[in-house]
Amino acid sequence: MTARSDVRSMLIGALAEKRRRDVGKLEAELRAAGSECPYDSIWLVKAGVRAARQLGFQLKPEKSEAAIFKSVEALTTYLHNKVQDQEAA
Predict the structure, then answer these.
(1) How many distinct structural domains can be found in the chain?
(2) How many Å apart are CA 87 and CA 70, to the nearest integer?
(3) Which residues fall within 8 angstroms of residue 71, CB to CB, at 6 or more apart?
(4) How large is the average pLDDT for residues 29-43?
(5) Which of 9, 10, 24, 56 counts the most CB atoms within 10 A of its CB?
């Protein structure tokens, strides 16, 4: 079973890689921005797609799901739920 913290770390790692940033510094900035770690950017979408691929499924962002791509925590929860569904199947 994949832990939520592992999914979050994977997502932040993918975001840091995409942005060419240090993971620790990026995570500190995200936490400083608020508890949901807001990051309303196409970079978060790209990082989410990469993290999903690493987790073993394809993510196709849709306009109806735009709200989950506005914070690291919302996207982490979404990806974690998808992984749990996949592992349960």
Answers:
(1) 1
(2) 26
(3) 36, 37, 38, 39, 40
(4) 92
(5) 10
Q: What is the pLDDT of residue 40?
A: 81
- Cα gap 35→59, rounded to integer Å: 25
Query: Phi, psi (5° rounding) for residue 71?
Result: -150, 150
CA distance 77 to 88: 16
Q: Is the pLDDT of residue 89 over 90?
A: no
CA 18 to chain centre: 12
Both tokens assigned to 51: 């993290």
Tell me the pLDDT of the chain averaged across its residues. 93
Its pTM stands at 0.92
Percent of the chain with pLDDT over 70: 100
Residue 50 belongs to what domain range?
4-88
Residue with tokens 């196709």: 60
What amino acid is encoded at 73 in this protein? E
Residue 70: count other Cβ atoms within 10 Å of its Cβ: 15
